[in-house]
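User: Some background: our group keeps a shared notebook of sequences we're curious about, and every so often someone picks one and asks for a predicted structure to add to the entry. Today it's my turn. The entry only has the sequence so far, pasted here. Could you supply the structure so I can complete it?
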Amino acid sequence: MKEISWPLWTMEMTPSSVTSDSYPIEVGVACWTAPTSAIMLWSSAINPYGVAGWEETDHEFLERIGFDESRLRQGVPPVVIARNLNDIFMSSTVYGKGGTTDIHLANRLNFTARVWPTYELKSWRVICERRPANGSSAWEIIRTAKGDAADRARGTMMGIAHLLGQVPSSRRVATMAVALPI
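Assistant: Of course. Here's the predicted structure to add to the notebook entry:
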């Protein structure tokens, strides 16, 4: 069984709708640097306005998930988010809960921004395959995570921590430079 490489990273993206034309409108990141460290969280809205192909936003869907248009307008342009994610993750493996949805949204972000990702996005289930005994209870932790993208990234990280037999604390920080040390 291959051991886990530290730090561990999780990423969660919020889609603009439930269709295949969806694009990311928010990204959340959780970083757990070591078993004895707190999980650090960061998130940002992604501003889709003025981005070719990102015109269709399902406002009913956004309302249902508690995401309003003013938050979108305050978001960061896709190119800035894509470059920052590369700077943060470098060549790390990043885990997401959404499987193909997360990969689709990350690909859409990077394609639109014309930024090639330096990191590899995988499903959290890769870790579960290494430690199958706790897989179903870990999924329950991940599945029930609510809140913004950072809260959901924390939920994925807490599920992974459960698989590793750990119970870390977490804290939210304002900037990526502080939140996500490399």
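Suggested note for the entry: Residues 174-182 have pLDDT under 50 and may be disordered. The longest strand covers residues 24-32.
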